[in-house]
Amino acid sequence: MIPTLAWTPDGVRFLDQTKLPLEESYVLASSYEQVAEAITSMVVRGAPAIGVAAAYGVALGALRTKAATAREFALEFDSVCARLTATRPTAVNLFWAIARMKRLFAGLLAAGATLDQIKEKLLAEAQAMYNEDIAACKKMGTFGAALLPDEGGVLTHCNAGALATCGYGTALGVIRSAVEQGKRIHVYADETRPFLQGARLTAWELMADHIPTTVICDNMAASLMRAGRIQAVIVGADRIAANGDTANKIGTYNVAILAREHGIPFYVAAPWSTIDLATATGEAIPIEERPAVEVTHHGGKQLTPNGVGICNPAFDVTPAKYITAIVTERGVLRAPFGESLKAVGRS
Amino acid sequence: MIPTLAWTPDGVRFLDQTKLPLEESYVLASSYEQVAEAITSMVVRGAPAIGVAAAYGVALGALRTKAATAREFALEFDSVCARLTATRPTAVNLFWAIARMKRLFAGLLAAGATLDQIKEKLLAEAQAMYNEDIAACKKMGTFGAALLPDEGGVLTHCNAGALATCGYGTALGVIRSAVEQGKRIHVYADETRPFLQGARLTAWELMADHIPTTVICDNMAASLMRAGRIQAVIVGADRIAANGDTANKIGTYNVAILAREHGIPFYVAAPWSTIDLATATGEAIPIEERPAVEVTHHGGKQLTPNGVGICNPAFDVTPAKYITAIVTERGVLRAPFGESLKAVGRS
Description:
The structure is a homodimer. Chain A is built from 11 helices and 17 strands. The first copy, chain A, has helices spanning 32-40, 47-63, 70-85, 92-110, 115-145, 171-180, 197-208, 221-226, 252-261, 293-296, 337-346, and strands at 5-8, 11-15, 26-29, 151-156, 184-190, 213-216, 232-235, 239-241, 246-249, 266-269, 275-276, 297-298, 301-302, 309-310, 315-318, 325-328, 331-333. In chain A, the strands form 4 sheets. A 7-stranded mixed sheet of chain A has the order 6-5-4-7-10-16-17, with helices on both faces. In chain A, helix 2 packs antiparallel against helix 5 (115-145). The longest helix of chain A has 31 residues, at 115-145. The first copy, chain A, is globular, with a radius of gyration of 20 Å. Chains A and B meet through helix 7, strand 6, helix 8, helix 9 and strand 13 of A and helix 7, strand 6, helix 8, helix 9 and strand 13 of B.
């Protein structure tokens, strides 16, 4: 399994995704500040992965504290959580994971747990979230594989794979599961400017699994669809609002429109922790604007003229009407998503 | 005016578009073979510009011949034209320009012209085509400016500017003309992977003219449209079939679908030499597949894992139904384009 992130006695070890595919190197985050930095700089990225990373970050905040007692650590705890919360605004898994750690901590504190017990329990919770992520991806894979054709081209955007999770993937987990079932899938990976998650990460991890993969520039999708080379689209998600509107990597909305125009089903695969029933529609999802340098430069080389204006929103919102189905570990949801999400959320 | 290509006593001088925007350097093509190489390697690109470049190439073939007489040169002439024809398959201006030079040559030969007369006339014809290109762009500018909003965002894809023509531009000529008329246009330039004509060339030439410009990645267009920041789209063309189907830089078809989905007008600006009434529909337009290295590498640095599949079609075809109007130097054409193109072609 691809070691996206792993707990070690010294802290969290991240496979450095800024260096892939040419270099397979690791970054050790031995403090919560270093975990926060790894999330901000996209050493680790992908909504499910940064959720679990943040949970480990909270655990590290406890493990590395100089406080002598639980009460003393409680004075620091909020700032640990605030630092990890401030890393990236769009993916809700981050906030979900930190909120879960906060609830656990509040309960332990109220129950009079010792600092050592708190350290142990916070780490165990992060480990549990790690294991749950893998289990959820496997379930999504099983549910989602049935949606993919027995043979054909499947387009994906960005990386919703092992590298975006703890090791199996959401959208790519569905593809992996379909391939394991014997389906003959050829993956078309949008290169996904500006960070090139498709060209660098999706291509790298699918090649590692010997799944046939072709990288295309983001602007080639429509012509491939028209040529009949794409039978389905599947992507991940960073936040799904209560009505099914889905924030995901910039360009996802483009692909969703193109798919509908060509009569191609458009699927979203995401764990339940990506669903934000407290956010009514996509309009309310905050969209991160990343530094212009990601667009203006590549590998230290400048692409654009000095001083030109740049847009670099990291995400866009695909309205629910473009989505054929949402694959979660609780099953495959269909429109109207407002109702299906509410019903499954209750169950 | 931007010196995209210029005739000099030593041959054709090209502004090297592979080096822009960071380096403003020139390539001198002093033989027809060097002109062909400049076209293939995209030192010069853009349908109108490569048409005129090829005409100069034919003239250079005559000027540099070792033949002593017109009859002797006639034995070489076809291979000069064949070499220039074999450079790029999609833009019809190239074939149009070479055919025009061939007709002139055949007439001169039949009329018993001397080799010196032929050299002089072929060069004069290329010069005429250069001047006609600038005049056509200015006319398109005047006709097309009326289509753009008095104030607002205009999205363009690739570079259909001074750098794609002899110095004013087709789509960007329309924008220039609108700005000269006092319209307050903010240009959004798709970066246009993989060759980055938008990020490198459109941004460079619009900044030189102090026209406000923001570069976006190709996959950001839909979210900007949804946010109300784009009021019109205007692009160039490499070949327009008799029914209005338009081949242009890869990604144009994507943008056309997105524009229609958001109720935004989608305009094509191209000189009459881009219109190919002999090609019935877009299905018959050959699409150039360029080397994979344009996608896998940038600035010598590898982006993708070794051995991954790559698609790199240089163009796509936008069906006529997505096009609001076609701006030519003969006026603004509207649907049904089969009829309007035929009518204007006859006039």
